[in-house]
Design a protein that fits this description.
Number of strands: 6
Largest sheet: 6 strands, mixed
Number of helices: 6
Helix content: 25-40%
Radius of gyration: 19 Å
Distance between the termini: 69 Å
Structural class: alpha/beta
């Protein structure tokens, strides 16, 4: 018979409760429950996956810091109407099953945009945690917008 310490018993009990409740422990990224993920991706990760990369910042932000090479530029001005603007601008590029990766300055706007989009498109949507700030801090050098 195995005897568990109080700490081990509590840890196992907590894990069992979490499993029954359907709570997962993710090591990379956060599944929001809203139909999208919010996690950090490098540009190499995005490109290797063949993702549609969309920079939702303003034109002034694009000029100030540059953009990801090959990213589509569609400004997010709030959830109301964004999904319509987005699909109108990128409809032909929304291949079934293709990941849509959204990036902004810090990752906050992408969560709101992802929430609006995930309810309207069938593509997997990923909001980049940390945004351009984190990408640039990790060594990525953006290109001028075209």
């Amino acid at each position: 018979m195995t005897v568990l310490s109080k700490r081990s018993f509590l840890l196992l009990g907590g894990a069992a409760v979490a499993a029954v409740a359907g709570v997962g422990y993710a090591t990379s990224g956060t599944q929001t429950g809203a139909g999208f993920e919010h996690r950090f991706l490098t540009v190499d990760d995005m490109q290797a996956a063949g993702a549609l990369i969309v920079d939702i910042r303003t034109p002034q932000e694009w000029r100030d810091t540059g953009v990801i090479d090959g990213a589509k530029l569609v400004t997010f001005r709030g959830e109301a109407g964004f999904a319509d603007t987005f699909t109108a601008a990128l409809g032909d590029e929304l291949d079934a099953g293709r990941n849509v990766v959204l990036i902004c300055r810090s990752g906050n706007r992408t969560q709101a945009a992802a929430r609006a989009l995930s309810a309207r498109i069938s593509n997997p949507v990923i909001s980049v945690e940390g945004g351009m700030r984190k990408l640039m801090a990790s060594g990525y050098r953006p290109v001028p917008p075209t």
